[in-house]
Amino acid sequence: MMIELQNILLPIDFSAPSEKATDYALTLARKFNATLHLLHVIEDPVVYIPMYESYPVPSRQQFETYAQTRLDNWITAEQAEGVKLEVSWRHGRPDVEIVEFADDSGIDLIVLGTHGRGLAAHLLLGSVAEKIVRKAPCPVLTVHPKGKQFVHEERPVG
User: How far is CA 82 from CA 20, 25, 70, 85, 93, in A?
Assistant: First the structure.
């Protein structure tokens, strides 16, 4: 049996765990000559309305422009060398949109940074990563920002 990866999905929330997952996704995309799909899900601000009582809520366009700018600058040209990148954003609930995107786009692997929140937060919020793992149409590699990594720095020979 041989594993073939043609399309890798890297959901991005612009956090440190997303940065760590990016390293894995880039390495795998390069090794398998796969297309790397970056996806950011914009959570519509209805839930945040109470926070904005004295401030105007950013417009849908402002959220989209912010997302596009951050995505376009997430991976430098040097990091992306030899990797085909596709960048997208969607509106909605992250777990739902990520699973749907993976399904629609024929994704072979999702590489997902996890926050590793405590049990109380997990019970209260539920884990987006856990929901994705349960519902994804393909394998999911979760990358915790701390702990053992299987990425090793290349050492010069000699």
Answer: 19, 13, 21, 10, 32
Radius of gyration of the chain (CA): 17
Question: CB under 8 Å to 141, separation ≥6 — which residues?
Answer: 24, 109, 110, 111, 112
Q: Which residue has the tokens 């600058």?
A: 73
End-to-end alpha carbon distance in the chain: 36
What's the pLDDT tens digit per position in 9-53? 999 999 888 998 999 999 999 999 999 999 999 987 655 555 556
Q: What is the dihedral of CA 114, 14, 87, 113, to 10 degrees?
A: -10
The DSSP symbol for 105 reads T
Helical axes 94-104 vs 128-135, angle rounded to 10°: 30
Query: Do residues 145 and 16 lie in contact, with contact meaning Cβ atoms separated by under 8 Å?
Result: yes
Sequence spans of domains, the chain: 40-91, 106-147
Q: Which pTM does this prediction carry?
A: 0.83
